[in-house]
Amino acid sequence: MEVQRGRQLALAGALLASAAPLRADARPPAKPGEIRPLPRLQLAVAPVIGPMSQGELDCRPRAGGVIYCEDGGTFLGAGGSLELRAKVYGPFFIHGRGLVVGNIRQAPRAVHAGMGGGGVGIGAYHRLAFIRAEYLVVGTFGSDRYKPPFGDLNGASDVYDHHAGLISGGIRYPFAQRLSAELWGGFMIGPRAHRTTPFEVSYPDRLIYSFLVGAGLAFDLIRGRAPAPASAPVPSAASPSP
Q1: pTM score, two decimals?
Q2: DSSP symbols for 9-23
Q3: Per residue in 101-151, pLDDT tens?
Q4: 181-203 pLDDT tens trace
Q5: Number of neighbours of residue 199 by Cβ within 10 angstroms
Q6: What residues does each domain of the chain span?
Q7: Which of 44, 58, 154, 210 could serve as 149's disulfide partner, Cβ 3.0–4.6 Å?
Q8: Cα–Cα dist 182/45, whole Å
Q9: SS3 164
Q10: In this structure, are residues 190 and 222 in contact, taking their beta carbons and an 8 Å threshold?
Q11: Which CATH number fits domain 39-54+68-222: 3.30.70.260, 2.60.120.280, 2.40.160.20, 2.60.120.380?
């Protein structure tokens, strides 16, 4: 009787010991699809504002003490951007960009009808944020001539070179199966501009410092590999002592 009672106590102790780790890890492991991994290939499209180049401004008094101002030679772009991103390693992606914008300002006081170009860059991406740097080759279309303040029609010009750089960052929100909403902005350096005008200006030849801002959608062309599911611990059954 005593031996049988001892075996029962030993068996009960073994069952309690094996149940303890199950209670400590009672929550099931996360499914691979719950946190979407970074894609291997992604396409992003966004309407954009920028870049901008400030024109000339001149103010002159008129009869009655009224000050009248005119400006000319301003460029402010608005258009679209298309990106193709490819994962290199870990959070790092390389990307190519196509960019086309039109000048919001209208002729004859505006210079150039628009700008287009492309670029390549590299960036670090997280599910909810990213930062990147890129090199751009751009070109303008439309006339490089404009009407300067209080000047003749087509009496001045502003010619842009073709090289620029962009440092940008943004936030993103994944939704659905393959889509992410993105909001980003950056600091654009270049291109260099050469202004010819009958009026004295501070910076006829200058490097343009501007911005580029976009808000759009990204689509995962090739989805990332989901992490392996966490394996539940296997309890070790203790054999009762005789």
Answers
A1: 0.76
A2: HHHHHHHHHHHHHHH
A3: 999 998 888 999 999 999 999 999 999 999 999 999 999 999 999 999 888
A4: 999 999 999 999 999 988 776 66
A5: 13
A6: 39-54+68-222
A7: 58
A8: 9
A9: strand
A10: no
A11: 2.40.160.20
